[in-house]
Design brief:
57% of the residues lie in helices and 5% in strands. It is mainly α. Strand 3 and strand 4 form a beta hairpin. The chain is globular. InterPro entries: HNH_nuc (IPR003615).
Protein backbone atom coordinates (compact mmCIF):
# COMPACT_ATOMS: atom_id res chain seq x y z
CA UNK A 1 0.00 0.00 0.00
CA UNK A 2 1.50 3.33 -1.06
CA UNK A 3 1.34 6.11 1.52
CA UNK A 4 -0.31 9.34 0.39
CA UNK A 5 2.65 11.30 1.76
CA UNK A 6 5.05 9.35 -0.48
CA UNK A 7 2.86 9.98 -3.52
CA UNK A 8 2.71 13.67 -2.70
CA UNK A 9 6.49 13.82 -2.43
CA UNK A 10 6.90 12.07 -5.79
CA UNK A 11 4.44 14.43 -7.46
CA UNK A 12 6.41 17.42 -6.14
CA UNK A 13 9.67 15.98 -7.48
CA UNK A 14 8.12 15.31 -10.88
CA UNK A 15 7.30 19.02 -11.13
CA UNK A 16 11.06 19.62 -11.39
CA UNK A 17 12.28 16.60 -13.32
CA UNK A 18 9.23 15.46 -15.35
CA UNK A 19 8.08 11.86 -15.62
CA UNK A 20 9.56 11.34 -19.08
CA UNK A 21 13.03 12.48 -17.95
CA UNK A 22 12.91 10.30 -14.84
CA UNK A 23 11.99 7.19 -16.84
CA UNK A 24 14.37 7.95 -19.72
CA UNK A 25 17.39 8.37 -17.43
CA UNK A 26 16.23 5.98 -14.70
CA UNK A 27 19.35 3.78 -14.79
CA UNK A 28 21.64 6.81 -14.83
CA UNK A 29 20.03 8.36 -11.74
CA UNK A 30 20.03 5.00 -9.98
CA UNK A 31 23.73 4.42 -10.59
CA UNK A 32 24.85 7.89 -9.48
CA UNK A 33 22.32 8.91 -6.81
CA UNK A 34 24.98 8.84 -4.05
CA UNK A 35 27.46 10.98 -5.98
CA UNK A 36 27.80 14.73 -5.52
CA UNK A 37 29.27 14.96 -9.00
CA UNK A 38 26.67 15.31 -11.77
CA UNK A 39 29.14 15.16 -14.68
CA UNK A 40 28.23 11.61 -15.73
CA UNK A 41 24.52 12.44 -15.64
CA UNK A 42 25.15 15.58 -17.67
CA UNK A 43 27.10 13.50 -20.23
CA UNK A 44 24.01 11.35 -20.73
CA UNK A 45 21.82 14.42 -21.08
CA UNK A 46 24.25 15.75 -23.70
CA UNK A 47 23.77 12.64 -25.84
CA UNK A 48 20.19 13.76 -26.44
CA UNK A 49 20.75 17.50 -26.84
CA UNK A 50 18.80 17.48 -30.09
CA UNK A 51 15.74 16.36 -28.11
CA UNK A 52 16.37 18.04 -24.74
CA UNK A 53 16.56 21.83 -25.15
CA UNK A 54 17.31 22.47 -21.47
CA UNK A 55 19.10 25.34 -19.75
CA UNK A 56 22.01 24.80 -17.34
CA UNK A 57 19.54 25.33 -14.50
CA UNK A 58 17.30 22.58 -15.93
CA UNK A 59 20.28 20.21 -16.16
CA UNK A 60 21.10 20.74 -12.49
CA UNK A 61 17.48 20.54 -11.34
CA UNK A 62 16.77 17.29 -13.18
CA UNK A 63 19.98 15.65 -11.97
CA UNK A 64 19.35 16.72 -8.36
CA UNK A 65 15.70 15.63 -8.24
CA UNK A 66 16.37 12.39 -10.13
CA UNK A 67 19.02 11.39 -7.59
CA UNK A 68 16.78 12.45 -4.69
CA UNK A 69 14.08 9.97 -5.75
CA UNK A 70 16.58 7.14 -5.28
CA UNK A 71 18.29 8.66 -2.24
CA UNK A 72 14.90 8.87 -0.49
CA UNK A 73 14.03 5.34 -1.66
CA UNK A 74 11.03 6.57 -3.63
CA UNK A 75 11.87 4.81 -6.91
CA UNK A 76 9.20 2.10 -6.51
CA UNK A 77 6.63 4.70 -5.47
CA UNK A 78 7.57 6.83 -8.48
CA UNK A 79 7.13 3.88 -10.85
CA UNK A 80 3.80 2.99 -9.22
CA UNK A 81 2.68 6.58 -9.67
CA UNK A 82 3.65 6.62 -13.36
CA UNK A 83 1.98 3.29 -14.15
CA UNK A 84 -1.19 3.76 -12.09
CA UNK A 85 -1.93 7.43 -11.52
CA UNK A 86 -0.19 9.63 -14.08
CA UNK A 87 -2.07 11.10 -17.05
CA UNK A 88 -1.15 8.66 -19.83
CA UNK A 89 -2.23 11.14 -22.52
CA UNK A 90 0.80 13.25 -21.64
CA UNK A 91 3.28 10.37 -21.90
CA UNK A 92 4.75 8.58 -24.92
CA UNK A 93 4.15 4.87 -25.42
CA UNK A 94 7.91 4.28 -24.91
CA UNK A 95 7.77 5.99 -21.51
CA UNK A 96 4.75 3.96 -20.39
CA UNK A 97 6.25 0.68 -21.63
CA UNK A 98 9.58 1.30 -19.90
CA UNK A 99 7.89 2.36 -16.64
CA UNK A 100 5.86 -0.87 -16.58
CA UNK A 101 8.93 -2.93 -17.38
CA UNK A 102 11.03 -1.27 -14.68
CA UNK A 103 8.31 -1.77 -12.09
CA UNK A 104 7.91 -5.42 -13.01
CA UNK A 105 11.67 -5.99 -12.77
CA UNK A 106 11.76 -4.32 -9.35
CA UNK A 107 9.19 -6.82 -8.14
CA UNK A 108 10.96 -9.86 -9.53
CA UNK A 109 12.58 -12.07 -6.93
CA UNK A 110 15.69 -14.26 -7.06
CA UNK A 111 13.40 -17.31 -7.31
CA UNK A 112 12.42 -16.25 -10.84
CA UNK A 113 15.98 -16.48 -12.15
CA UNK A 114 16.50 -19.27 -14.67
CA UNK A 115 17.90 -22.51 -13.16
CA UNK A 116 20.88 -22.46 -15.53
CA UNK A 117 21.79 -18.97 -14.28
CA UNK A 118 21.52 -20.06 -10.65
CA UNK A 119 23.84 -22.96 -11.49
CA UNK A 120 26.36 -20.61 -13.11
CA UNK A 121 26.22 -18.28 -10.10
CA UNK A 122 26.88 -21.20 -7.75
CA UNK A 123 29.88 -22.24 -9.86
CA UNK A 124 31.25 -18.70 -9.68
CA UNK A 125 30.81 -18.54 -5.91
CA UNK A 126 32.52 -21.92 -5.44
CA UNK A 127 35.50 -20.98 -7.62
CA UNK A 128 38.38 -20.57 -5.16
CA UNK A 129 40.65 -19.10 -7.83
CA UNK A 130 38.55 -15.93 -8.01
CA UNK A 131 38.84 -12.99 -5.65
CA UNK A 132 35.71 -11.86 -3.80
CA UNK A 133 35.47 -8.70 -5.91
CA UNK A 134 35.76 -10.77 -9.11
CA UNK A 135 32.99 -13.11 -7.94
CA UNK A 136 30.72 -10.17 -7.13
CA UNK A 137 31.32 -8.62 -10.54
CA UNK A 138 30.70 -11.89 -12.41
CA UNK A 139 27.50 -12.64 -10.47
CA UNK A 140 26.24 -9.13 -11.18
CA UNK A 141 26.88 -9.62 -14.91
CA UNK A 142 25.09 -12.99 -15.00
CA UNK A 143 22.07 -11.62 -13.15
CA UNK A 144 22.02 -8.61 -15.44
CA UNK A 145 22.21 -10.79 -18.56
CA UNK A 146 19.43 -13.05 -17.28
CA UNK A 147 17.09 -10.13 -16.58
CA UNK A 148 18.06 -8.52 -19.87
CA UNK A 149 17.07 -11.63 -21.83
CA UNK A 150 13.71 -11.64 -20.02
CA UNK A 151 13.17 -8.00 -20.98
CA UNK A 152 13.97 -8.71 -24.62
CA UNK A 153 11.60 -11.69 -24.67
CA UNK A 154 8.85 -9.50 -23.20
CA UNK A 155 9.51 -6.79 -25.76
CA UNK A 156 10.04 -8.77 -28.98
CA UNK A 157 7.92 -11.80 -27.90
CA UNK A 158 9.57 -13.93 -30.60
CA UNK A 159 12.66 -13.88 -32.82
CA UNK A 160 12.75 -10.36 -34.22
CA UNK A 161 13.71 -11.70 -37.67
CA UNK A 162 12.38 -15.23 -38.16
CA UNK A 163 9.37 -14.88 -35.79
CA UNK A 164 10.27 -18.21 -34.16
CA UNK A 165 8.58 -18.40 -30.73
CA UNK A 166 10.64 -21.20 -29.10
CA UNK A 167 12.19 -19.14 -26.29
CA UNK A 168 14.64 -21.88 -25.31
CA UNK A 169 16.74 -21.31 -28.45
CA UNK A 170 16.47 -17.52 -28.68
CA UNK A 171 19.57 -15.47 -27.84
CA UNK A 172 19.70 -11.97 -26.37
CA UNK A 173 22.06 -10.24 -28.79
CA UNK A 174 23.57 -6.85 -28.03
CA UNK A 175 23.59 -4.51 -31.03
CA UNK A 176 26.49 -2.51 -29.62
CA UNK A 177 28.77 -5.19 -28.12
CA UNK A 178 28.56 -5.54 -24.34
CA UNK A 179 32.34 -5.04 -23.97
CA UNK A 180 32.10 -1.66 -25.73
CA UNK A 181 29.08 -0.35 -23.81
CA UNK A 182 29.00 2.13 -20.96
CA UNK A 183 26.93 1.25 -17.89
CA UNK A 184 23.76 2.77 -19.32
CA UNK A 185 24.04 0.99 -22.66
CA UNK A 186 24.79 -2.51 -21.33
CA UNK A 187 21.20 -3.33 -20.46
CA UNK A 188 19.34 -0.75 -22.51
CA UNK A 189 16.32 -2.55 -23.99
CA UNK A 190 16.87 -0.84 -27.32
CA UNK A 191 20.44 -2.16 -27.55
CA UNK A 192 19.16 -5.71 -27.86
CA UNK A 193 17.76 -8.07 -30.46
CA UNK A 194 16.24 -11.50 -29.92
CA UNK A 195 17.82 -13.81 -32.50
CA UNK A 196 18.08 -17.47 -33.39
CA UNK A 197 21.63 -18.92 -33.10
CA UNK A 198 22.53 -18.63 -36.81
CA UNK A 199 21.58 -14.95 -36.99
CA UNK A 200 23.17 -14.23 -33.60
CA UNK A 201 26.55 -15.65 -34.61
CA UNK A 202 26.67 -13.78 -37.92
CA UNK A 203 25.47 -10.58 -36.26
CA UNK A 204 28.09 -10.91 -33.52
CA UNK A 205 30.84 -11.27 -36.17
CA UNK A 206 29.51 -8.30 -38.19
CA UNK A 207 28.81 -10.60 -41.13
CA UNK A 208 25.24 -9.33 -41.16
CA UNK A 209 23.71 -6.12 -39.86
CA UNK A 210 20.36 -4.32 -40.09
CA UNK A 211 19.83 -0.78 -41.35
CA UNK A 212 17.54 1.79 -39.75
CA UNK A 213 14.58 0.41 -41.71
CA UNK A 214 15.34 -3.00 -40.24
CA UNK A 215 16.42 -4.46 -43.59
CA UNK A 216 19.28 -6.95 -43.50
CA UNK A 217 22.79 -6.12 -44.70
CA UNK A 218 24.85 -9.14 -45.75
CA UNK A 219 28.63 -9.33 -46.04
CA UNK A 220 30.05 -10.20 -49.45
CA UNK A 221 32.11 -12.81 -47.60
CA UNK A 222 28.96 -14.94 -47.45
CA UNK A 223 28.21 -16.81 -50.65
CA UNK A 224 24.81 -17.75 -51.98
CA UNK A 225 25.50 -21.32 -50.85
CA UNK A 226 26.44 -20.12 -47.36
CA UNK A 227 23.18 -18.19 -47.07
CA UNK A 228 21.10 -21.14 -48.24
CA UNK A 229 22.74 -23.51 -45.76
CA UNK A 230 22.36 -20.98 -42.93
CA UNK A 231 18.76 -20.21 -43.85
CA UNK A 232 19.50 -16.50 -44.32
CA UNK A 233 17.46 -14.54 -46.88
CA UNK A 234 18.28 -11.18 -48.48
CA UNK A 235 14.64 -10.29 -47.85
CA UNK A 236 15.01 -10.66 -44.08
CA UNK A 237 14.20 -7.68 -41.89
CA UNK A 238 13.52 -6.84 -38.26
CA UNK A 239 9.95 -6.84 -36.98
CA UNK A 240 8.81 -3.34 -38.00
CA UNK A 241 6.04 -3.32 -35.37
CA UNK A 242 8.64 -3.45 -32.61
CA UNK A 243 11.44 -1.45 -34.22
CA UNK A 244 11.75 1.94 -32.50
CA UNK A 245 13.71 5.13 -33.21
CA UNK A 246 15.52 4.31 -29.95
CA UNK A 247 17.16 1.39 -31.77
CA UNK A 248 18.65 3.65 -34.45
CA UNK A 249 21.69 4.90 -32.56
CA UNK A 250 22.74 1.33 -31.79
CA UNK A 251 21.98 0.05 -35.29
CA UNK A 252 24.10 2.85 -36.76
CA UNK A 253 26.98 1.79 -34.50
CA UNK A 254 26.64 -1.80 -35.73
CA UNK A 255 26.31 -0.65 -39.36
CA UNK A 256 29.54 1.32 -39.05
CA UNK A 257 31.37 -1.74 -37.71
CA UNK A 258 29.86 -3.88 -40.47
CA UNK A 259 30.95 -1.40 -43.16
CA UNK A 260 34.41 -1.11 -41.64
CA UNK A 261 34.82 -4.87 -41.89
CA UNK A 262 33.70 -4.79 -45.52
CA UNK A 263 36.20 -2.04 -46.35
CA UNK A 264 39.04 -3.88 -44.65
CA UNK A 265 38.17 -7.04 -46.56
CA UNK A 266 38.23 -5.16 -49.86
CA UNK A 267 41.59 -3.55 -49.07
CA UNK A 268 43.05 -6.94 -48.22
CA UNK A 269 41.76 -8.47 -51.46
CA UNK A 270 43.26 -5.60 -53.48
CA UNK A 271 46.68 -6.17 -51.89
CA UNK A 272 46.49 -9.85 -52.75
Amino acid sequence: MIKDSSLDEVKKLFQHISISSFIKYFEVFEKHYESRDNSFIFENFDKHKEYESWTDKSYKSRATKGKKIFRDKLDIVALEYVTKFANKNRLTSETIEKANRLLKNRKNSIVEIEPIVLKQIKEIENNNELLKAEKTALVKIRLGQSNYRKELIEYWEKSCVTKIEMQEILIASHIKPFSECNETEKYDLYNGLLLTPNYDKLFDKFLISFDQNGEILISTLLTKTDLEKLGISRKDKLNSEKLSPNHYIYLKYHNDKFNERERNKNVLQQRI
